[in-house]
Amino acid sequence: MGDFTILSTKNVDLTRFNTKPAEKSQPVIGIDKKIIIFTVRTGYPSFEEAADRAIEQGKTHGMALTNAVIYFDKWYIPYVYGEMQMEVKGNLVRVTD
How are strands ordered across the β-sheet holding 64-77? Predict the structure, then answer.
């Protein structure tokens, strides 16, 4: 759904923003999934919730993602079961001292 150089759902202090360590880090993934039972949806997946889950991974929470990519996936077996999912993947940027 989208490809972003820098992505954040948090308030970011740009004076402490350093993307150099993020370029070498492993990617993090945040997912927000909702199910469909028969024809009833349990809600809609949220891009913001998926991004928050990715940013909040690790021992110390990050504040943004670099090289972020957003995916949307959906599958459904009529009148039985289905899933809708938003996934955000990127490299975590942490606050520097």
Answer: 2-7, 64-77, 81-93, 27-37, 40-41
Q: Residue 23: what are its φ and ψ, rounded to 5°?
A: -65, -25
pLDDT tens readout for residues 26-47: 889 999 999 999 889 999 999 9
The pLDDT averaged over each successive group of 10 residues in the chain (97 residues) is: 88 76 82 94 94 83 88 94 96 75
Place of tokens 């954040």: 8
Does this model's pTM top 0.85? My answer is no
Q: For residues 73 and 65, what is the distance between their CA atoms, to the nearest angstrom?
A: 21
How far, in Å, CA of 18 to CA of 49, rounded?
24
Strand ranges inside the chain, DSSP E: 2-7, 27-37, 40-41, 64-77, 81-93
| Distance from the first to the final alpha carbon of the chain | 34
